[in-house]
């Protein structure tokens, strides 16, 4: 990527830049979503950068899971991903430009010297920061061949001010910033340098990220200002630092709160991507009292100025309630294809899709959908669960025999006709409808919970329904 690429500053360009040392967690997914929505809302570009410079901890599996998770959420990107590890030469090039222009310098301090410096600072209860001992020294003072790092010469007077799009105006005294390392002794660039160079080269106009990176912005801006003074064309991006997500107890979200990868919400909790998409929008952003958003609505309404300054709280119950809403709104054929692999026996996809309207009204997740539909594909003879079996006494079997005889004589196998026939039998026997419906449900499904019993009869069809009833009546 050339150093002047993507510099059409009239167009919004955002980036999501995960580190592939683990899964795509909720916080990362929300950051990705906010960046994507902001770019789409403003007709700009959304870009993806994989920050894989930690080669010991970055794994291909993590990269694959991050990209898979983003794709599952429906976040598409306008260019192929940029891999930070492949751009080390470009990062070194900028560091050497800064060194040559006097905005950076060689530091020959040894590890032992630096540790002694920190020990003294601890003893004096001073902040642990580099003391600038090589900032103004002549590199010729170091013995030939002595290893060195390249440090940024940060401003030491005045203050740096960031007008953050979420946090507002934030000030830091420059004296609090130390001359941090740009290039290590082995010539490898540091994260702080790589991020700034990549953001510039990718043409990023807005940096939307967690507020745990706010301090980094004050360390990164001096690089931008220095490079702008050297070659021009290094504008400061708009920063937007979004508060982190907390658990219900107010503590930072962790594994004990359910801080797992987005694939776990899909695979273990049975959450639809549009439900997680919708839920993540509402973690820190809002549009009045509106809770449910389609993708198009989210793009039309989202803007960064409505993101709050306070941490949001993750609520699994609320996510699952929202998931239930999206399940009810989802296409039945899609749901059938989604849950079919969870049903252990052979599945008729057409029947499963036809059953979805009556099954999905009770389900909060895809696992409940699969469990609720499993009765359709049971092979006779099948066992009844404990509660269903408890209903099957001699009296219930006698009633099933009567039900079977009446239903077998029914020519119109529709819900209305079947309900009328069954109710008429219950009245003849001077029974409440439930006294027939409960054993009938047990015989047809093997359980005591299911969609409406007449829905079940229609879905199973005449032949299968009568065969299941007779098998239990015998």
UniProtKB/TrEMBL annotation:
Q: Which UniProt keywords apply?
A: Aminoacyl-tRNA synthetase, ATP-binding, Cytoplasm, Ligase, Nucleotide-binding, Protein biosynthesis
Gene3D superfamilies linked: 1.10.10.350, HUPs (3.40.50.620)
Motif window: 'HIGH' region: 18-28
Principal localization?
cytoplasm
UniProt key word Disulfide bond: no
Q: Look up the EC number in the record and give it.
A: 6.1.1.17
Query: Could you tell me which PANTHER family the record lists for this protein?
Result: GLUTAMATE--TRNA LIGASE, GLUTAMATE--TRNA LIGASE, MITOCHONDRIAL-RELATED
Q: Which HAMAP family match?
A: Glu_tRNA_synth_type1 (MF_00022)
Write the protein's name.
Glutamate--tRNA ligase
The gene behind this protein is: gltX
């Amino acid at each position: 990527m050339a150093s002047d690429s993507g510099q059409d500053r009239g167009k919004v360009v955002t980036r999501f830049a995960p580190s592939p040392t683990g899964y795509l967690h909720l916080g990362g997914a929300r950051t990705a979503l906010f960046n994507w929505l902001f770019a789409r809302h403003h007709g700009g570009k959304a870009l993806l950068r994989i920050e894989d410079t930690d080669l010991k901890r970055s794994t291909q599996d993590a990269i694959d899971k991050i990209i898979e998770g983003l794709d599952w959420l429906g976040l598409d990107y306008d260019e192929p991903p940029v891999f930070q590890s492949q751009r080390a030469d470009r990062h070194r090039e900028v560091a050497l430009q800064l060194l040559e222009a006097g905005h950076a310098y060689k530091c020959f301090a040894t590890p032992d010297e630096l540790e002694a410096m920190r020990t003294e600072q601890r003893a004096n209860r001073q902040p642990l920061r580099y003391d600038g001992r090589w900032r103004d020294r002549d590199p010729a003072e170091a013995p030939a061949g002595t290893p060195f790092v390249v440090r940024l010469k940060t401003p030491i007077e005045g203050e740096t001010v960031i007008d953050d799009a979420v946090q507002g105006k934030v000030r830091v005294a420059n004296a609090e910033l130390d001359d941090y390392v740009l290039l290590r002794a082995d010539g490898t660039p540091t994260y702080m340098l790589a991020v700034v160079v990549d953001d510039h080269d990718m043409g990023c106009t807005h940096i939307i990220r967690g507020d745990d990176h706010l301090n980094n912005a004050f360390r990164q801006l001096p690089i931008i200002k220095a490079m702008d003074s050297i070659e021009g064309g290094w504008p400061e991006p708009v920063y937007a630092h979004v508060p982190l997500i907390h658990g219900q107890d107010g503590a930072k979200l962790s594994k004990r709160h359910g801080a797992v990868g987005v694939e776990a919400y899909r695979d273990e909790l049975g959450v639809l991507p549009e439900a997680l998409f919708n839920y993540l929008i509402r973690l820190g952003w809002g549009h009045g009292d509106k809770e449910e958003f389609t993708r198009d609505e989210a793009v039309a309404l989202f803007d960064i100025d409505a993101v709050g300054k306070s941490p949001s709280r993750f609520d699994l119950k609320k996510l699952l309630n929202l998931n239930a809403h999206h399940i009810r709104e989802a296409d039945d054929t899609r749901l059938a294809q989604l849950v079919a692999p969870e049903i252990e026996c052979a599945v008729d996809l057409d029947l499963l899709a036809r059953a979805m309207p009556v099954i999905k009204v009770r389900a909060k997740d895809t696992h409940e959908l699969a469990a609720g539909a499993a009765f359709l594909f049971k092979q006779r003879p099948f066992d009844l669960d404990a509660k269903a079996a408890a209903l099957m006494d001699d009296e219930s079997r006698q009633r099933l025999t009567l039900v079977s005889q009446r239903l077998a004589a029914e020519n119109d196998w529709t819900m209305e006709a079947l309900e009328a026939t069954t109710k008429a039998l219950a009245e003849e026997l001077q029974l409440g409808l439930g006294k027939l419906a409960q054993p009938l449900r047990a015989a047809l499904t093997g359980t005591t919970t299911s969609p409406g019993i007449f829905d079940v009869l229609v879905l199973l069809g005449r032949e299968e329904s009568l065969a299941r009833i007779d098998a239990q009546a015998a």
